[in-house]
Amino acid sequence: MDFLNAIVALSNFVLVPAIAYGSQLALGALGVTLIYGILRFSNFAHGDTMAFGTMVVVLVTWWFQSMGISFGPLPTALLALPLGILGCMALLLVTDRVVYRFYRAQKAKPVILVIVSMGVMFILNGLVRFIIGPDEQRFADGERFIISARDFKEMTGLREGLAIKSTQGITVIVAVIAVALLFWFLNRTRTGKSMRAYSDNEDLALLSGINPERVVMYTWLIVAALATVAGTLYGLDKSFKPFVYFQLLLPIFASAIVGGLGSPLGAIAGGFVIAFSEVTITYAWKKVLGYLMPEGLEPDGLVQLLSTDYKFAVSFVILLIVLLFRPTGLFRGKSV
Amino acid sequence: MSAAVKNTVLFALVGGLILLTGFMQSWNSALLILNMGLISAIMAIGVNLQWGFAGLFNVGVMGFVALGGLAVVLVSADPVGEAWAAGGTRVLLGLLLGAATVVAAVLVNTRMPRGRARAIATLAILIGGFFVYRGVFDPGVEAVEKVNPAGTGFLGGLGLPVLLAWPAGGLLAAGAAWLIGKTALGLRSDYLAIATLGIAEIIIAVMKNEDWLARGVKNVVGLSRPVPYEIDLQNDPGFVDSAIGLGFDPVTASTLYVKVGYSALFLVVLVILLWMAQMALKSPWGRMMRAIRDSEVAAEAMGKDVTRRHLQVFVLGSAICGIAGAMMTTLDGQLTPGTYQPLRFTFLIWVMVIVGGSGNNFGAVLGGFLIWLLWVQVEPIGQFLMDVITSGMAEDSALRSHLLGSAAHMRLLTMGLLLLLVLRFSPRGLIPEK
Amino acid sequence: MSSGNYDDRGNKDASITNPKGRGELSARPGTGQVMETASAFLIGDSMTGGYGKGPDILHDCTIAVNPGEIAVIVGPNGAGKSTAMKAVFGMLDLRQGSVRLDGEDITALSPQDRVVRGMGFVPQTNNIFTSLTVEENLEMGAFIRRDDFRETMAQIYDLFPILKDKRNQAAGELSGGQRQQVAVGRALMTQPKVLMLDEPTAGVSPIVMDELFDRIIEVSRTGIPILMVEQNARQALEIADKGYVLVQGSNAYAGTGKELLADPEVRKSFLGG
Lengths: 336, 434, 273
Fold this sequence. Notes:
The structure holds 3 protein chains of 3 kinds. By secondary structure, chain A is mainly α. Chain A is 72% helix and 1% strand. In chain A, strands 1-2 form a two-stranded antiparallel sheet. In chain A, α2 (46-66) runs antiparallel to α3 (76-105), α2 (46-66) crosses α9 and α7 (190-200) crosses α9 (212-237). By secondary structure, chain B is mostly helical. Chain B folds into 2 domains: 3-79 and 156-425, ABC transporter involved in vitamin B12 uptake, BtuC, CATH 1.10.3470; 80-155. Chain B is built from 18 helices and no strands. Chain B is globular. Chain C has a domain at 36-118 and 195-202 and 225-273: 3-Layer(aba) Sandwich (Rossmann fold), CATH 3.40.50.300. Chains in contact: A-B, A-C, B-C. The A-B interface holds A 42, 44, 99, 102, 111-112, 114-116, 118-127, 129-131, 133-134, 243, 246-247, 249-250, 253-254, 257, 301, 305, 307, 309-310, 312-313, 315-316, 319-320, 323-324, 327 and B 57, 59, 130, 138, 183, 187-188, 191, 193-195, 197-199, 201-202, 205-206, 208-209, 341-343, 347, 350-351, 354, 405-406, 409-417, 419-420, 423-424, 427.
């Protein structure tokens, strides 16, 4: 019984949150890695792109709510998601047209694009704060739990409860769908293959008649979708605050690099590695160990390796370890 | 128009704008802008050293600036005797043990032959060391933080004159930069960007959460100052007399006097650092640095130790940022870890360097002043613009109140726009590298 | 390649920028004066030019391929062999001369447009998509085709049976010789009217080289004219219908492969006696 309780406690506080967070990071890292593979720079504006897409979703959600539209037990935000994606796509296409395309034509070095993306980051950050303000917004509605801790206890008779928030369930399901669609697109469609080809060998792609501007356009469209989905899921699960999205840049970059920049599979693996490390290292293991340890040996302290405020440190240390022992990342940074 | 004339005009223009602030708004705000402009210029020199001279992409400026701020507390705050008695030695011992663990692990890793034994030994040292460290450290921290948590709850500093904190801030930042550079530059000359981005966040996280060190988010206020206090000046009959003699109200005069004092101190630092940076740029060292920047392969082929040079310039640039950070905390008179934000302390400095002209020290200085001036003035300008735009709208219009309320966020927009415009139309900046 | 205003200050930070795979290809169609010579299927006629505003590398150099033939460009290192081929493909700034394909002047076309007009080009290096499977490489070769290319792919698998076995393997995992087959296969997917190979046997073992030459002959037998640059002059001339010996960017000798092999001057200077 104690063993079961330990497992339930572990699932409740570590596994479930980490899987949800990992899915969100993976989606974010996929966007970063796609841009790195195709446009060949790290997009510092990615966190703010996510914020922008999510902002559109939040605004549309409010609008839907005001009109009395709801999605039954599911959050209204899921209904608003397609519109958010469209908004984000429009934004990224405009940014590309107005900003990035010029530097591509100039064949500017990639690091210049990184600095340019810093400028875009400022603008998006300002834009989001301008439109929706810098404050925290909660926009999750519908059913709160798939299964609440109390129901679980009643059902199983265990002392520990397992709560799965509906947002966590939705996160995982939506992430799986998004990733499946992405991989289907990249591996099965002509356009997707041409994107991979372009990322692999630009000159040869040109010789094969692949139009770089089209590849770039599709990349932005996909990135917009991924960023909006990632941002919305994160916002549903926690809350929407522009500054937090900006800060997500670090764990997202860490995920992409740990997995191997340019590798979509790596981005997903990296997202989960970072998420699980963050959650396990900042989790207080007292409860789980209390069940597992023999009588009398239960720990007194919280058995928390690091306080939750150091979650950035965790992603950073993981990053450092991977770089030291496997500099190309877990998946060898194969291009898209 | 020759370059020298153009540069003079540019500097005169920025100076004129600051003067205009003095005439239009108040001399107090003009001096505030000037002081922060001086500090920003120093930070920009630091970043320019790394990016302009050596092409190192450091996006962790905020971390070094914050370390400089921390140095002010560590150097100038009064020591809290009670806290030291409660757990000071324990905390120090814990830290030493922690450091010893890391050093031992690194030693084992470098000395032992490759293989499973090494991995196990390293891991054992790290895990064992971690628990020993926490075992010693945690009770000490708890004891220290229990000592009058509302007032102190930290170990305090050394109680030395605050001016000493400036070089100390530089040293602290340099030490951190050395550690980062040693890991990130040594391992594959890449990954510096992400390493600095991460380390800056970690430094801030440490400063926010380690209350025993500098009270965390409870802030350390009332730090000592290198200039007199306004209230002392106002109580000084000599000062009041001369102020009145000059036609000033004593209260205003005292604030101006204090600010001018800061300006003078900052100006001295800026001039020294600028002079040093100029000398470095012209020296064989600076030429080699730029040679490495322009072609690492060629420099390596000529037998230059590129990683070592990069480490040098990275440490130097970070130290300058640390000095600036210490100066800023001194100016504020308080350390507030919660206010460090990457947009303001990392990316804004980058805007300064790029707009001013990367690779040119004077460009960086100009950028520092200009961008800071804009950063401050965009808000009132934005407010004014919003007033104009919304003047036609109904008093109770929701849009109107939203627009008015959001004017504060014009800053980020403007900075981004400025950066993009400069990159597009004048990519070498206002004062380009020669 | 980038203008001075956008240099990266020597930055090598791989975590923020992707240093590999940046394109170097740029179209440099020449528009010099046109000279009329004998008609061939593909001819780079009296080409003079160099890269950008740099010095001329080619001097009045003429390379031609007749229908159904194999033409080989040989010559000492630095003679401008690859440059001549790039000139024919539109990657050089021609100051004089013209390039004609099937009687049509294509001097002003970009390399991509020349591909559309029916020129297949296999660069010397980076000539496959390493992370794509063999089959995907071939599909990408057929990217400009909107019709059904399965038949062409089957033909290529017939031509290079090994590729059929490895169709689902990443091309980067193949051996050097197999990679070259992928590269040639990729170029053939457009059903080109002429195939250009830049040193197809560079860096492969002699046995593989012989096999590759056999394959090239087979390709040629399908009726596609082939123009190739070769380092291994003797073997190349043996299979060549037409050979060009370039020296310092100019035609030194030209003739059938057999003639050149028999020419004592050519033997002495380039074939080691």
